[in-house]
Structure formats: C-alpha cells, structure tokens
Design goal:
Alpha-Beta Plaits; 3 domains; alpha+beta
Length: about 230
C-alpha cells in the first residue's frame, strides 16, 4: 500500500495533503524519514510515525452539517474566527469535503476518510450540488439559457448546469441551481455574469443527500445508506 493512502485511511489528511506532509519530512517508516510520496508500506509490519505519533487505522466518521453564514469552511484560521469544525464537538480530527464561502449557508460533509474526500473532490466525480439563491432582478429566457449552456468566467467556461425560477417578488427572484463543478465562488460568479447578482445563497443538496430539517449550526451522522451512496457501493 502507498504511504499516502494509508495516511488517508488513518484520518491524518486527504491523500493530496498527506503527500505534502511527506515532502515536509514529518513522516517516518521504521525509524527512517521518507520524502517520497508513493513509498510502499505494510501497515501490519511497518512502524509508521507522523509528526511524532504512531499511526493506526481510525474508525471512519461521516457527518453532515448545515454551515451558517459567517462560519469558515477551512480547517485552520489564524484570526480566531469560528470554523465549521467548531460546530461538531467530537474528539476525532475531521476534514471538510470541499468548501462553502463564508457568506454561504448550507450542506457540508465532514469526515476523517481521506480516500472518500479525495474521490468526492476530484473533478471527475458526478455528485451535483444544488443551491437556492435569492438574486437581484428577474432573469429572462436568454439569461437562463446562458446559465444552462455554460458561461465564460475569468479563464474558464462553466459546464452545463440547471436553473429554474421558483419565485419572483418585486425586484428579486428565488432560483434553484445545480452544478457539477466546485470552483471558488462559482455560483456567485455565474449569477453575476448573467446580470443577476446573488443576495443570499444556500446549498441544499449534494447528489441525493439533502439538508432536510437541519437548521443552521446543526449536524448529524450519515446513515449506512448515505455512506454507501457516497462511496458508490451497492
């Protein structure tokens, strides 16, 4: 087994971040510091130490949380601001699967399963993300078609997406939008590009997983069927 895969299984970090730890020289195998991602290990025979602590495979934890606005998705913050991890008072070290910007509320997954984190954040995964967005103005047919077909934003073109108007009230509209990508502030940029900037934004689903009755700041463990679904298992 490759060392970064085992580190991910132990809940140290995702495989990508585990590779960075290896390159920093904080990983030892049988007393020897290694710097090579992909180094082969046998967890039953080898002694593997990361930052002075011996590894053992962790019990996997999978949590859904409704991140409130004003709370950070990042694992660390040097300014003392509240993080989504602060909302879940358990001793195991968890990581967010993707991110939501500070001003966006909604569904985030937390886990110590590095392999699953890697799979779900890889560009090839097929889990769409559904958002409810209150925007300025009333999008016309051309604006909606532009959103669906893909929009030139900065240095990339967005993939085909879905959008529909749920409600129109004076000079605002409530939209349901679904995308398969996860670039930084993408939904906000797409709405701005069609001339209808976001006023309020909430992620309500990832694939078939939805927030349901979770209120901002609340969390729950995923059930067996939900975990199986995320892993693509039957």
């Amino acid at each position: 087994m490759r060392i970064q895969k085992y580190m991910a299984q132990c809940g140290i970090a995702s495989r990508r971040k585990s590779e960075q730890l290896i390159q920093k020289g904080v990983v030892q195998v049988n007393g020897v510091t290694i710097y090579e991602p992909g180094f082969p290990v046998d967890p039953e025979k080898d002694q593997i130490i990361v930052s002075g602590k011996r590894l053992s495979e962790a019990i996997k934890i999978y949590i859904m949380v409704n991140k409130p606005k004003g709370v950070l998705s990042t694992s660390e913050d040097t300014h003392g601001r509240q993080r989504v991890l602060d909302l879940v008072p358990i001793k195991e070290r968890l990581y967010t699967v993707g991110r939501l910007d500070m001003d966006t509320e909604g569904l985030l997954l937390l886990t110590n399963d590095g392999d699953l984190t890697f799979a779900l954040t890889h560009p090839s995964h097929e889990f769409g993300k559904t958002y409810l967005g209150l925007v300025k103005g009333r999008p016309d047919k051309n604006s909606l078609e532009s959103f669906r077909d893909g929009i030139e934003i900065e240095d990339y073109r967005t993939a085909p997406a879905t959008i529909k108007i749920l409600k129109i009230d004076h000079d605002t509209s409530l939209l349901e939008m679904r995308i398969h990508e996860g670039r930084k502030r993408q939904i906000r940029k797409m709405c701005a590009a069609i001339g209808h900037p976001i006023i309020d934004l909430k992620r309500v689903a990832m694939g078939d997983l939805s927030l349901g009755n979770l209120k901002p700041g609340e969390w729950r463990y995923l059930n067996h069927d939900e975990i199986t679904y995320l892993k693509g298992e039957k």
